[in-house]
């Protein structure tokens, strides 16, 4: 079997067999297929798509490219959450300790930044000393001891996904539904989870900008989960504007802590609680969603969610003092306030453009070897539906090196003002279950 034949077959729009997909995953993981040929196949998949059968086989091949963790010694139903990513989406960081404080065992294997969206691991590494590279044994021990852990996939857990994930970021193949679905499910199933809550984002700042595409992705994810006897729920959520008010690694950790202190923005707080409520119900820690919401709100109010976050940070080597002193994390040297050029309501925001501005400032990756500058980012002052007067701040840009004209132009082009207030934005569009 030759990889060139497989590339040509998919290029021509034909269905790949289980043997061909398994060959690709196995040989690429071993380093026998070079990046340029793997990239060619990924682009062929991006352009030609995959059948449901192919996607399920690809996910299963990536899942079994390494170890599948056995968490059976940890009592209870293990529940994880995954987001398809968006600008300002820091929900995993407050969510993991919040549900752990409510008694849910949450083993979370997370990823790094892809394209215009930030990665949970990059954000957590803004905390001095935070180590996401735990061994499998340490991961299991930590989940058992404190209820949660957020780590990078080890070399032994879904190693194929780790290689393909990094390559997709630099080859223009990030927003492929079958590649996203197989990547998510291989990693999540390999982590030993029993149930999974999905946050599938749609809108101008999401990989799936079209609602129907987001729904299709959710359906493929649910189908793969069902084939592996994993209980799942998918929420399709709004990414037509940044989530919360802070974008960038350090800034998003700050907002995450604010949520756990009960001081977070309304949208990020609401989505954290809503996703957490479904996790509690799947874990059989609450009889219904409303009961689960009440439990989580109480965990924030009584300080136990914040205390659990401190446990998480300490367990993974981070400096717990950041909870009370955000200045212990890296910050950019410069703050550029970009103001409105006209009066009007914010009618729309090109959220992808804001995400890419953070990438160009150093807060994301244009190629997989790029270093992240954790201190750069954006603080959003005006969101969709807000009225702004000429000269009022739209965004404060946190930067180290920058071109002032480019920064100003990027923000002004991303914001669209009108004389009429637009309808209120929904946060959650649809909930899909198996």
Task: Give a description of the structure.
It is globular and about 65 Å long. Helix content is 44%, strand content 16%. Helix 10 (211-227) links the parallel strand 4 and strand 5. The two termini are 37 Å apart. Helix 4 (52-63) runs parallel beside helix 9 (177-190) and helix 15 (351-363) packs antiparallel against helix 16. It is built from 16 helices and 13 strands. The chain folds into 3 domains: 3-49, Transferase, Pyrimidine Nucleoside Phosphorylase, Chain A, domain 3 (Up-down Bundle), CATH 1.20.970.10; 79-326, Pyrimidine Nucleoside Phosphorylase, Chain A, domain 2; 331-418, Alpha-Beta Complex (Aldehyde Oxidoreductase, domain 3). The protein has 434 residues and is an alpha/beta fold. The chain has helices at 3-11, 18-29, 35-48, 52-63, 92-101, 120-124, 136-146, 159-169, 177-190, 211-227, 249-260, 266-282, 289-301, 304-315, 351-363, 404-414, and strands at residues 79-83, 106-110, 148-152, 195-202, 231-238, 246-247, 334-339, 344-349, 377-380, 387-388, 393-399, 415-418, 428-433. The mean pLDDT is 94. A 4-stranded mixed β-sheet has the order 1-4-5-13, sandwiched between helices. Strands 6-9-11-7 form a 4-stranded antiparallel β-sheet, sandwiched between helices. Its EC number is 2.4.2.2. Catalyzes phosphorolysis of the pyrimidine nucleosides uridine, thymidine and 2'-deoxyuridine with the formation of the corresponding pyrimidine base and ribose-1-phosphate. It is an enzyme of class 2 (transferase). Keywords: Glycosyltransferase, Transferase.
């Amino acid at each position: 079997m030759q990889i060139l034949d497989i590339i040509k077959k998919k290029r021509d729009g034909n269905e790949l067999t289980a043997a061909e997909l398994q060959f690709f995953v196995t040989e690429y993981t071993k380093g026998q297929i070079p990046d340029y040929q793997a990239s060619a196949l990924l682009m062929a998949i991006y352009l030609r798509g995959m059948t449901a059968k192919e996607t399920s086989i690809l996910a299963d091949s990536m899942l079994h490219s390494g170890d599948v963790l056995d968490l059976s010694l940890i009592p209870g139903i293990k529940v994880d959450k995954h987001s398809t990513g968006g600008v300002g989406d820091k929900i995993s960081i407050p969510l993991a300790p919040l549900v752990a404080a409510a008694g849910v065992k949450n083993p979370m294997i997370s990823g790094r930044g892809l394209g215009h969206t930030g990665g949970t691991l990059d954000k957590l590494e803004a905390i001095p000393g935070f180590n996401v590279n735990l061994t499998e044994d340490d991961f299991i021990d930590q989940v058992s001891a404190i209820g949660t852990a957020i780590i990078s996939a080890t070399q032994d857990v879904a190693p194929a996904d780790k290689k393909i994930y990094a390559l997709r970021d630099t080859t223009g193949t990030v927003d492929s539904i079958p590649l996203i679905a197989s990547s998510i499910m291989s990693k999540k199933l390999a982590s030993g989870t029993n149930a999974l809550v999905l946050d599938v984002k749609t809108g101008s700042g999401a990989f799936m900008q079209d609602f129907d595409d987001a729904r299709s992705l959710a359906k493929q994810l649910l189908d793969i989960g069902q084939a592996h006897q994993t209980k799942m729920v998918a929420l399709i959520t709004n990414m037509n504007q940044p989530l919360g008010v802070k974008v960038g690694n350090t800034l998003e950790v700050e907002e995450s802590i604010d949520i756990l202190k009960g001081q977070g923005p309304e949208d990020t707080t609401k989505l954290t609680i809503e996703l957490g409520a479904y996790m509690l119900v799947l874990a059989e820690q609450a009889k219904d969603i409303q009961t689960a919401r009440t439990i989580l709100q109480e965990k924030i109010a009584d300080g136990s969610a914040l205390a659990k976050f401190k446990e998480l940070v300490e367990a993974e080597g981070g400096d717990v003092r950041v909870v009370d002193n955000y200045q212990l994390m890296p910050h950019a040297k410069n703050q550029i306030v970009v103001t409105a050029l006209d009066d009007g309501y914010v009618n729309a925001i090109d959220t992808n453009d804001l995400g890419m501005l953070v990438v160009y400032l150093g807060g994301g990756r244009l190629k997989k070897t790029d270093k992240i500058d954790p201190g750069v980012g954006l603080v959003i002052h005006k969101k969709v539906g807000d009225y702004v007067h000429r000269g009022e701040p739209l965004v404060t840009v946190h930067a180290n090196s920058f071109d002032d004209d480019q920064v100003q132009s990027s923000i002004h082009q991303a914001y669209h003002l009108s004389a009429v207030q637009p309808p209120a934005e929904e946060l959650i569009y649809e909930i899909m279950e198996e």
